[in-house]
Description:
This protein is mainly β. The chain has one domain (17-157): Nucleoside Triphosphate Pyrophosphohydrolase (Alpha-Beta Complex), CATH 3.90.79.10. The protein contains two helices and nine strands; from the N terminus they run αββββαβββββ. The protein has helices at 17-26, 70-82; strands at residues 31-40, 47-51, 57-58, 61-63, 84-95, 101-103, 109-124, 135-139, 164-165.
Amino acid sequence: xxxxxxxxxxxxxxxxxxYTALRERVGHALLLMPGVAAIVRDESGRxxxxxxxxxxxxxxxxxxxxxxxxxxxxxxxxxEETGLRVRPRRIAAVVGGSSCRVRYAxxxxxxxxxxxxxxxxxxxxxxxxxxxxKRLQYFRRDEMPELxxxxxxxxxxxxxxxAYFEGQRETR
Length: 172
């Protein structure tokens, strides 16, 4: 997961059997993990955020599982965390490196490489809450709370014609 890997009681949530088995072998050592995140906007352009049970906020996001493409992973993650069916429209950003390194309360250390997708809603109904989500809310970009995972501001630009790649300097 790109956000908290424990619930408010410190219990592990949602870690797949693959990542659980990997953690059993490597302990708390640093893992490089592929992740996905979704920017889902309403008709006003506001961004959907997920509040977790520890009260932190994030984009709907999670890890890519073995055998799963990033586009399939984001459809799965968004549905699990929001109840919405989405279709990825474009890659908004690809971020990684030391700024994407997280040390969880349980000592696990992960450095994510995250493909961020702009997604459109194609079905489903928003959930009230579940094991991973306390609540969902749409925010204008200038009103968004601080996110648990710090995506670069460029990630949210609707007008970009190409994806943002962290570390890439724009030349004119």
